[in-house]
Write a structure and sequence with these properties.
Layout (H helix, E strand, L loop, with lengths): L6 H28 L8 H12 L7 H20 L9 H19 L9 H23 L7 H13 L3 H24 L7 H29 L4 H6 L12 E7 L5 H12 L2 E3 L1 H12 L3 H5 L1 H4 L3 H14 L4 H19 L2 E5 L3 H4 L6 E7 L2 H12 L3 H23 L11 E4 L5 H29 L1
Parallel strand pairs: 1-3, 1-4, 2-3, 4-5
Helix pairs in contact: 1-4, 1-5, 1-8, 2-3, 2-7, 3-4, 3-6, 5-8, 6-7, 8-14, 10-19, 11-15, 17-18
């Protein structure tokens, strides 16, 4: 869908943005009350706030201090970028004042909550604050108005150094926490305002935010008239129209089921070109411009969920595409281009069944087999032991399923997402090929009849 820009949508975006900032502010206030520290970006303001409280000064609140420090972050961003600093980045000044105001408002609203007296209660306050802060961030990034000043510094670092955003976020977080620690040690000779809670927030905000985004992102974006960066990138790929002479087959398979061998048999019988993993990866490297090693090993990254969640969080708060999203968008463009330009093709894996789900010329197959059969075939085909075959089977199927789930929202291998699922335990590869060819021809005949009726009625 195209992004809608209208006064009504701008107002909606502002409402959602401010709601997110308010929720985030409430979470930060609760974290500050825990006395265990809040998120890294609020570390310096919190320490300064605690210093002023210890001096008996109550005229300058946490919100005012945060606004001032955030403006310093904008100055740092300007120093890093210099001539590359854009006028639109000055929106971050407004973000600073809005968040500072909501922090002050949040402190007033939650003033009735007593400060915890025991360490256990402090932990409870901190644990309660984390999902609230995660929800606030998830809400305020959805309208795509402006990143916060801290995220602006991270983006500036990434732009100037060429380093990945997650690395720059980590460096910046460490730097500002270090400054907060130094300030605390100078004035308190100990850690006040920045403690273990700061580290806990840094490690948990991303993983907690991810499922929240899964629930609220689509309805909020529908409300605001926006779309994700991935959707915008994918929209560049043109879908194919119905062609009675065209046939595109996608094949997914469990490791060891011989689904890829069946795919080659089908291609030979149907006179179709095969697009294997190696060919598709080369095309995706060219399309995305991403490093070859990253593209070839992207499925392995999905296994390290903590690292992936941190990286996703870093890009999400920047309101930019992370490399895996960029790769998936390139994957969409590559597969749709194949479906549009080839008359007959067999595509192996790469989420083809989902990417081409609306293609009227696409027939989707999933191949599976009993575990004992898969292990035995893997032993013979790869010349490995049964134990090694089981490990390889589990790792490969797990990474395929997780990648598919994360990018399509579908359960990999579930029958309802395919036109045909086939067990190569019940059928051998040799006697299943004619069966699949027959199924494809019957499917095409049904499609021709259906589209003929539509065109006649039109």
């Amino acid at each position: 869908m195209k992004e809608k820009i209208s006064p009504v949508n701008i107002i909606k975006r502002l409402i959602v943005f401010c709601a997110g900032q308010m929720i985030l502010a409430l979470g930060v206030v609760i974290a500050v009350k825990s006395a265990l520290g809040a998120s890294p970006t609020t570390g310096i303001p919190n320490v300064i706030y605690q210093i002023l409280l210890s001096k008996g000064s109550t005229s300058i609140g946490l919100g005012t201090i945060t606004t001032a420090i955030y403006c310093v972050y904008i100055l740092v961003q300007f120093i890093i970028l210099r001539k590359d600093f854009k006028l639109r980045m000055l929106l971050e000044i407004a973000v600073s004042f809005i968040f500072g105001y909501f922090l002050s408002l949040g402190q007033g609203i939650l003033s009735f909550i007593p400060a915890p007296e025991t360490y256990a209660m402090r932990l409870v306050y901190l644990i309660v604050s984390i999902p609230i802060m995660s929800l606030g961030i998830a809400v305020y990034v959805t309208p795509q108005i402006s990143p916060a000043p801290a995220e602006g510094v991270t983006a500036a670092m990434s732009q100037k150094t060429g380093w990945p955003v997650p690395r720059c976020l980590l460096i910046f977080d460490i730097a500002i926490v270090a400054v907060a620690v130094v300030l605390s040690l100078i004035f308190f000779h100990g850690l006040v305002g920045v403690r273990e809670g700061t580290i806990i927030c840094a490690l948990t905000l991303g993983p907690v935010m991810k499922p929240i985004m899964g629930v609220i992102q689509k309805p909020l974006m529908d409300f605001c008239g926006t779309q994700t960066k991935r959707e915008a990138a994918m929209a560049q790929a043109e879908a194919a129209a119905y062609d009675p002479g065209k046939l595109i087959i996608t094949v997914d398979w469990e490791f060891g089921s011989s689904g890829d061998i069946l795919a080659y048999d089908l291609a030979e019988k149907l006179g179709a070109k095969v697009y294997s993993n190696d060919q598709l990866v080369d095309m995706e490297i060219a399309e995305s411009g991403l490093p070859e090693r990253f593209v070839r090993e992207h499925e392995k990254l999905m296994r390290h969920s903590a690292l992936y969640d941190y990286s996703t969080y870093a890009y999400m708060i920047q309101q930019t595409l992370d490399p895996l999203d960029e790769l998936y968008a390139a994957q969409v463009r590559v597969l749709r281009n194949i479906a549009r330009t080839e008359q007959r093709a067999v595509i192996l894996g790469h989420c083809g069944n989902y990417i081409l789900r609306d293609d009227p010329n696409c027939f989707r197959i999933f191949v599976h087999a009993e575990q004992t059969d898969r292990v035995a075939r893997a032993e013979r085909r790869h010349n490995i032991s049964g134990e090694e075959a089981e490990r390889a089977m589990h790792a490969t199927n797990h990474s395929r399923a997780k990648y598919h789930q994360d990018f399509t929202g579908e359960v990999w291998g579930q029958a309802r997402y395919y036109d045909l699922t086939l067990s190569l335990s019940a059928f051998t590869r040799t006697n299943s090929s004619p069966l699949v060819v027959d199924a494809v021809e019957r499917w095409k005949a049904g499609h021709r009849e259906h589209n003929t009726k539509i065109s006649t009625q039109a």
